Each structure stands twice: as structure tokens, then as C-alpha cells.
Amino acid sequence: MSNEISFHFNGAKFTGAAGQSVAAALIANGERELRRTRFGEEPRSIFCGIGICFDCVVTINGVANQRACLIEISNDMKVESSL
Amino acid sequence: MIIVVGAGPAGLAAAKSAASKGCQVTVIDSQPRGGGQYWRHLTAVSGYKSNRSAAYLKELQQNKLITHITGAQVWSAEKLGDGYQLNYLQAGVEKKISAQKIILTTGAYDRTLPFPGWTTSGVMTPGGAQSLLKGHGVVAGKAIVVSGTGPFLLPVATALAKSGAYVEIIEAQSPLRWALSPLALLLNPGKFPELMHYASAIVRLKIKVSFGSAVTEYHSGVAQVSKVRSDLSIRKKNIRNISADVVATGWGFLPDVTLGGILGCAQTLDRHETVVFEVDKEQRASAQNIWIAGEATGIGGADLALAEGAIAGLSATGSRIPAGLRWKRLTKRLFAKALQRSYPVGGGWQEWLRDETVICRCEEVSYQEIIESVQELGAEDARTSKLFTRAGMGLCQGRVCSRNVSDVVSGTTKCAVSRSERLAASNRPIAAPISLGVLGDGIAG
After folding, report:
1. What is d(CA B420, CA B443) in angstroms, rounded to the nearest whole number?
2. Range of the domain at A61
3. In angstroms, rounded to a whole number, what is the distance separating the alpha carbons of residues B55 and A50?
4. Residue of B55, B6, B247, B46 whose CA lies nearest to B134
5. Which residues of chain B have pLDDT under 50?
6. pLDDT > 50? residue A51
7. Which among B37, B128, B433 has CB closest to A46?
8. Residue A54: which of B127, B132, B396 has the nearest Cβ?
9. In chain B, what residues touch A44 (CB-CB under 8 Å)?
10. Residue of B250, B170, B258 whose CA lies nearest to B213
11. Minimal-distance CA residue of chain A relative to B361
12. What's the gap in Å between the CA of A30 and the closest CA on chain B?
């Protein structure tokens, strides 16, 4: 895990290690809240961590409902909290 | 060619044994690397005897008869002649693969129970914490309460503590329950060094362990621990508070039966009323040319999955199953039964809930809304309650909540959940959501 990857989350720049998932890289940066829920606007983070629960869905490079726990970060990736 | 769905212990053992008989095998898996949920190896953190995986992963990478398709989410499957076609998504593109014979090793995921505060950031499954650590090199938090029931809490807690987190284990059941299963213990002497491995790690890493307790509430960074009975009802509420930024909570596992369900493989309920596949002595499913191995035929851990996978691989190539392998599977199955006896999940958790506690995380449906759908709208089962409340209709298709919704409805109507409701709640028409655009492009292409 030597290669450093830089990506964006809600407009801010973050770095992570190559091979890390979006959720893992954000949690490592202290960003636990990945999105707010539709009705209660409650903060949500990673829950099952293996692609089952869809709690961690974010918009990645314009594509909505992507599971942050499964998708690996890549350079200049644009991650946004889905609503 | 044989397709193996899943690259965990069962899938790797199936691929290895089928390839050893000269058969071409394609292993298709949703993860970027082989090993499944249990064997993850981005970092050096390892569980007991996880070095066993090295030989299997080497086979996956180097055996010319084995092809490994990674990052592929199989979302549907259909019959094609006397074989099957699997439709999968890889990096957003729809693709397909077909073969006469399929071995399904789709594994399992953590079973979770709701409690006040379980939707806040910081609460996750032990599998989630494990995947962050072993798959991505990230320690989930600084102070972590690992709670729930079952032996999987041990490798998760010790790995987290080894990586520098303060860890406490809150196990709901008493270890004395193992006295109910003397034969299983006698026939699995290899489990004693494994237990000693974790026991000494717990002492060395100064992990505090409590039995007969559960985290029944979490808010503002504080986990409230209550004493619970073996059916999980509360014996004494809020006996202790633990400051923690992460609560990793899991109650055993639920097999992922979706794909085999789509292909019409017969299912049944185990003693925990968990939906599992019915297989014969050679791991054959009820549908022709399908074998199923590992957690999807009943939760039993990696040792059982390896034996079942090896048997499935041999059977699919028409080879003889050695008696030693059958004996190994028998002893591991006995141990799996003992695990169920030792770590039951009763319905008493409903006492932990408040009216506003969310039961369905996707659609944000509260305990009170489900109760009202029964008491005021006349719902008599989870299916009807779901139509009123949308519980279980979100993106996860009820994988997380459907079983709990059934139990809440049953707790209100005072009628036991029927076998058909349990089976229906575990099955879904597609294995993963797919956008209509991708689906349309796929068909046009």
C-alpha cells in the first residue's frame, strides 16, 4: 500500500492508499459521515462493509447509489454524498 | 467448464478440487481479490491459521485451468439449454457467462438486531470492522465495543486490539452452553488450540470480556450495556456505560441464498429458522447441474466450507469422494450444530427498542410504524406490513431487516412466523440492483 491516490469528497480534497475503498479512505481521514438519509436527514456511514446493506451509497463521478464500501478510490475521483 | 460463484474458502476449495481432476474452472467473485469475506489479506493482520489460505490463493492465481473474474456482481441467472447463464456487472458494464455446471458458494453476511442508536455513524457489523481492517488497512475506531454473539467476535476483537484500538467484548451468551455439546467438542479436538490462541490473545491484549450482556443502546459516543437472558430479554437494564467511537455488533450470520433461489434450488429452515439450501451427500442442489457449498448450506465456518467445497468440486467433475473428506465434513457439521446450540438468537431483543427506533434502515421505518401497521391497519404478516410501511422495500431488498420485521410483526400478533414467510423473506427477484440504462444497453448489445 505505497501508492497514494488523491480524490474529492463533497468538493474537498483527500488522499488514500491504492486499493482502499472510498469508505475506508474517508474513515481513515476522519470523515465518518458519508451521506444523510432522505426522510430523517440522519447521518449514515459504513454498516455492513461488504456491499449488502447499501447504507454507504454515494454518488461517484456522477453515478448515483454506488456502494462506498466496495468501490476502490482512483485519482481525481469525485465522490459526493447522495441524498 | 465449471463456474464457481464466490472466491471464499468454499469456492477456492471447489475450484482447486475440480481443477485437480483436469477440469477448466472459472471463479467469479464481487471482490477485487480472492479470499472472500473471511480471508482478506491486504495487510499482515491474520486470524488463527489464516495462513491456510495461502495455498488456495496461490492455486487461484497460478493454476492455468482456473480463471478468476474479479469485481463482478452477478445480478441474475437463468437456465440455458442443460446449463446456466449468469448475468453480471463489472465496472458498470453488463456481461454474461455460461456453463453446463455451476457451483454456488455465495457465503453469508452478518445478522444484525436493531437497538436505539444502531443507525448512528460508528455502529457497524463485526464483518464491516474486519473488512475495513484486513481489506483496507483502516482501524474502525479508537475505542471499540465488539458485541453480539458467536465465535466470530473473537478474531475481530483481537485483530482490532492488535492494531492499537481499545477493545471490549460483550458476548450475550454464557460459555457454559458448550456443555450442551460434548460429542461435537470431542470430535473436533483441533478447536481447543484455536480457543487457546484467542484466549491468550485476549489476555495479552488486555481485552475486557463480559458474558450474558449486550449493548442495548448507543448514543453520543456511549454504549449502554444491559444484562440479558439467553433469549436476549433484559435481566437488568443499563448496568454499565462504555465510551466508544465504534460499536461492532453482530448476531451470527445469514446465508446469501438469492442466486440459488433465482435458479429454483430448494431451501429449508435450520434450527435457528435461518433459510439455507438443501443439498445431497455430494453437495448437489435440487436443480440439475448445480452444487452448493459453504455457508449457503448452513453456517459452519471456514473448516466446514473447505470440506464442502472440495466435495462439490470433485462431484461436479464426476470423481469419487474420499471417505476422509466425508468424515471431515461430518465432524465439522456436528461442530456447526454445537455453535447453533451455544449461540442462539432469541426474540427478547424487541425489549430493547423504543417507539422511534428504526427497524428498516433503507426506508427509515420505525418500530412504532410496524406495530401500527399490525394493530391499526390489520397487517398479519411481514409482507402486508411491508406494503403499508415500505419496511424491506429499500435498496438492500430487505437483506438487513426482513427477518427482524417478521419477528416484530409476530411479536405483536402473537402468532409464530410461518415457514413460507421465512422462505419468502430471504428470496428476491434479482441479486443486486441494476439501473435500467445498463440493463437496456446490455440487452441491445
Report:
1. 34
2. 4-81
3. 24
4. B46
5. 42-45, 443-445
6. yes
7. B128
8. B396
9. 119, 121, 361
10. B170
11. A55
12. 10
Alpha-carbon distances of B350 from A46, A67, B140, B411, rounded to whole Å: 24, 30, 28, 8
Count of the separate structural domains present in chain A = 1
Structural domains present in chain B? 2-109+254-321 (3.50.50.60), 112-251 (3.50.50.60), 353-414 (1.10.10.1100)
Contact check, Cβ <8 Å, B136/A32: no
Q: Which amino acid is at B31?
A: Q
**Distance, in angstroms, between A43 CA and closest chain B CA?**
7
- Tell me what ipTM this predicted complex has: 0.95
Best probe of the A interface among B89, B121, B295, B397, by most A CBs < 10 A, is B121
Q: Can you give the CATH number for the domain in which A23 is found?
A: 3.10.20.440
Question: Which residue in A36, A46, A74, A81 has the most chain B C-beta atoms within 10 A of its own C-beta, making it the best mutation to test that interface?
Answer: A46
Interface residue of B124, B146, B401 to substitute, partner A, most A CBs within 10 Å: B124
Q: How confident is the model at residue B432, as a pLDDT?
A: 82
Buried b / exposed e along B263-285 (16+ C-beta atoms within 10 A): bebebeeeebebbbbebeeebbb
Q: Quote the pLDDT of residue B47.
A: 54
Q: How far is CA B342 from CA B101, B230, B381, B422, in A?
A: 37, 10, 29, 22
